[in-house]
Amino acid sequence: MSIPHNIYIHVPFCISKCNYCAFFSRAISPDWDCYATQILSEVDFWAQRLGRVSVPTIFFGGGTPSLMPTKIFNKIIKHISEKFDLQNCSEITLESNPGTLDETKLREFIDCGLTRLSVGVQSFDDDELKFLGRQHDAATAIKILESAQSMNINVSADFIYGLPGHNVRHIISVCDKINQIGLKHASLYELTIEKNTPFGQMNLSMPNNDEMADMYLAIEKNLNLPRYEVSNYATNENICVHNKNVWLGGAYIGLGHGARGRVFMNNAWFEQYGGDIKYQKIDDDTRALERIITGLRTIYGVALDDKTKNILDIDFIKNNNDLVQIKDNRLIATNKGILILDDLLVNLTR
Ligand code: SF4
User: Could you say which residues of the chain have pLDDT below 50?
Assistant: First the structure.
């Protein structure tokens, strides 16, 4: 049986490294033809194994995919369309950084099939952007958001909160600005300090857990967009289809160094790595646990089927209605449960 596979393409290149960043990316100017050759050969590899499966979404993540020349983007999309079935492909997303994309280049991306732009804005404060190690200012970010909004595509922006000195007042002002710009999708991530980053060496004085929780709750109260995942807010029409598919347990192929995927072939699930093209079988319990972890992050929850029920502690669920609830045979975390999701997952599974 073949099922649809979403495609994630990792573009691991940036202008420079941000002070908080632990993503797989390098500050180099790559040989784009060489990069495209690699991606195309991975497309061929998976087309041979999976056949001409339907591809509902394509997502270029990074790194900084907006650095990619549009002719390389076009070449990759064209090749995917030759090897897979794009008839039901409803979304092609590109992650971008302000300053790497102007209106002309954005139009070219759209002409090649782009339907959704995600912009790494991170902050509306120029001093904060410098502190984060970003290479752009707030005005440049707002300009590309406004250009994209005028081009009939879905537009999203990423923000980071919980920097030293941040409080509820700060997050309310960010929400106000997002409302004012009229964004229909926004991702607001709490700053986490990773060891092997410049921030990891700086002994920063971070807001405590209660302050972080207050800021998190303030987002839902002040943003004009409903939450559909722990850190993601959007109107119904602007929900990221790619991420939703992945979070709800859909299959996806990861292409390029640093990418990972979950492919379904020969009636089994495989964990798969882009770049060196490695893959290994994953057992039913591992796959069910992944679906529970990602599904509970969303407002849709996770389906209660034989595979998930096999590892869930049903008694715990029945006794903790304030944290998790069953609706239409799906297990969904409540607002209270979302706040303690990591602990909840430990107790929820056997
Ligand atoms: S632009 Fe994104 S991927 Fe690149 S270094 Fe900054 S945070 Fe990391």
Answer: none
> CA dihedral in degrees (194, 199, 205, 211; nearest 10)?
-50
> For ligand 1, is residue 121 a contact (CB within 6 Å)?
no
pLDDT of residue 2: 85
Give the pLDDT of residue 6: 98
Q: Which helix (H) or strand (E) holds 110?
A: helix 103-111
The pair of three-digit structure tokens given for residue 232, joined into one six-digit string: 């993601």
d(CA 241, CA 233): 13
Please give the helix or strand (H or E) that residue 281 lies within, else none. Answer: strand 278-282
Atom of ligand 1 nearest to the CA of 97: 1
DSSP lists the bridge partners of residue 155 as 117
Confirm whether pTM is higher than 0.90.
Answer: yes
Domain ranges of the chain: 5-244, 284-350
Scanning the structure block, which residue is given the tokens 């994309």? 101
Residue among 108, 98, 99, 25 nearest 73 (CA): 108
Contact between 84 and 53 (Cβ < 8 Å)? yes
* DSSP per-residue letters across 189-205: EE----TTSTGGGS---
Query: Candidates 64, 101, 119, 135: which one to mutate for ligand 1, based on the most atoms within 8 Å of Cβ?
Result: 64
Concatenated DSSP letters of 32-101: HHHHHHHHHHHHHHHHHHH-S-B--EEEEEES-GGGS-HHHHHHHHHHHHHHSB-TT--EEEEEE-TTS-
Q: Domain 5-244 - what CATH class?
A: alpha beta
Contact present, 222 and 171 (Cβ < 8 Å): yes
Structure confidence at residue 110 (pLDDT): 98
Q: Give every CB contact of residue 337 below 8 A, 6+ residues apart in sequence.
A: 296, 322, 323, 324, 344
CA angle 306, 240, 141 (to 5 degrees): 150
The pLDDT, as a whole number, for residue 103 is: 96
Q: Which residue CA neighbors atom 8 of ligand 1 most closely?
A: 21
pLDDT at site 350? 83
3-state DSSP call for residue 337? helix
Ligand 1 centroid from CA 232, angstroms: 19
Reported residue count of the chain is 350
